[in-house]
Amino acid sequence: MTYTEWLREDRLPHIYCAGCGNGTVINCTLNAVDQMGWKKEETVFVSGIGCSSRAPGYIMTDSLHTTHGRALAFATGIKMASPDLNVVVFTGDGDLAAIGGNHFIHACRRNIDLTVVCMNNQIYGMTGGQGSPTTPMGALSTTTPYGSREPTFDLCELASAAGANFVSRWTSYHVKELTRAIHNGLKTSGFSFIEAAVQCPTNYGRRNKFRQVMDQIEYFKTHAVLQQKADRLREEGKPLPENSIVVGEFVHRNRPAMGVKR
Amino acid sequence: MTRIDFMQGNTACAEGALAAGCRFFGGYPITPSTEVAEHMAVKLPKLGGVFIQMEDEIAGIASVIGASWTGVRSMTATSGPGFSLMMENLGFAVMTETPCVVVNIQRGGPSTGQPTMSAQGDMLQCRFGSHGDYSIIALSPASVQEMYELTIRAFNLADRFRVPVFLMADEIIGHMRERIEIPDSVPREERRLLDKGTLPFHAGSDLVPGFPQFGKGYGVHVTGLTHDERGYPCTTSPSVHEELVKRLVAKVESARDEIADYRVTNPAAEVVFITYGSPARTVEQLIHDHPEAKIGHLRLRLVWPFCEKALGEFPDARVFLVPEQNLGQMAREIERHTSVPVVPLPKLGGALHTPGELEKAMEIWR
User: Fold this and answer.
1) Distance from the CA of B22 to the CA of which of A19, A212, A245, B172 falls in 20 to 30 A?
2) How many whole angstroms separate alpha carbon B227 and alpha carbon B244?
């Protein structure tokens, strides 16, 4: 089987804008799922609301497209009631870190056996470009017209602190690394969190000096700092370069988990 | 053999759920419903079921809906503030046609109100509280026995109609202890699975589609967005939306007479009380104390969809007196269906109506 066999062709064309990074993340995820050898009938995709959350509708498995922010609570019910199902959650920065923040913390704490892939485009894309908890300070959005003045959430630090068994971050530039990270997340028992920084040319890029789609992907490439390098700089007492995106595998552990296949 | 027991209403509700085959409870502690959760926490693990205390009521009902899609009978229990938090996801359950049972042991509101006192202030919220047009089923027990029986019926109705079913009890019934008869076996109506080859949201003459249970190879997409019969989002077609919403309403409303559940006392009466929940107990006391007065009593065990036919059981009625622990929520609905005068007898604060109060209200009409 190949990842293309997981897609519902009768739902095409999809709703994503030209140049959107979400398609890359869906491809990486389906490749990783395919590598697991999972059967479609044993796999469920769950999502909340937003651009990221439309992804399950394009996949040929059972899927639950739920309410804004609550995907992890729905997924918890599915996985606890039927641990034999493989459950993967697609979410975004607004869905997961704003309205769904509390569910995120508690799903990590419970260490429920889910794999969560967060497409972090740093903006509310579907509603037209409002600021989110990951919109960088100074960045422009329709609700931060003078530049965001709020500090951002580091979603990976949040997941690590709250108890997730696997935590990793890559970007839509790092296709192979992202696929490998999701695959490792799927293999890990307990809560796996993979953050993928993605470009949103329509609602983030054009307001923030990324005139072309490739400009933001190039930015990911040049600003990504491997976790090992970031650690080394920290040990040497040197600051990280400005606007660094630290990427890599931050947590891989074996805390007791819930909802694991019996 | 029927077993005789003595227990609290909330415990009887949990026992009824277990007897009905409920194997998933997701919820959040809240007075005066907590004993339902506590009893499920003790019993479910021993029966191979799952009890999970979620981070809030929003997550509680979400987990119940998720569990239900895997084919497991699932429930939650709450009270006013938690009920308010559940509203958005209850609309999701309506839109996605997810069977689930929600127990509301009503307390005094608005807001935090009177956590330990009885009320019936959520009767319209359970019917209309989520946004958009829809219909649901609500039952209202007036005894510990009915906490058991109507919880079982709630699961059967939820599975048959694929709709959230509410057990709208009040604190008095939830915390009251009395005699209960527990039967050997209970009626069970199974959730009908979708025939393979049929579109997942295509309904036949009963307007209820077969259930495409997760993990059975249906490959169904379930969304809270307006969807076509394939389950695919279809959000800008007026006709798809109108047909879907009208079917969701009609599948419940067209069955109102068939599923109606009420008790009639003295049908020839001219003065008739209409009750549900704990005020029924005061009316029963009044009838017991004045057998010669032939006081009429219509006791609703199923409140929503409201059954107009029940009012016809009292052809000589000159007045319907409606004692409620709210400011006349169901009285307003009853008034819509009859030309007979409807008099609300509201009582707030948590105390039951006394027989004396009802007698006084009745005297004016004799």
Assistant:
1) B172
2) 8
